[in-house]
Amino acid sequence: MNILLVDDNPTNLALLRHMVRKLQDCEPICYEHPLEALATCAETMPDMVLVDYMMPELDGIDFIQRFRALPHGRDIPIIMITADDSRDVRYEALQVGANDFLNKPIDKTEFLARMRNMLTLRKSQKQLANRAEWLASEVRKATRELRKRELEAVVMLSRAAEFRDPETGAHLLRMAHYAQVIARNLGLSQEQQDLLQEAAPMHDIGKVGVPDRILLKPGKLDRKEFEIMKQHAVYGYQILRDSASPLLRMGAEIAWTHHERVDGAGYPRGLKGDAIPLVGRIVAVADVFDALTSARPYKQAWPVDKAQDWLRTHAGAHFDPACVDAFLQSLDEVLAIRQRFQDVPGD
Ligand code: C2E
Ligand code: SIN
Ligand code: SIN
Ligand code: FE
Ligand code: FE
Question: In terms of domains, do 196 and 299 share one?
Answer without folding.
Answer: yes
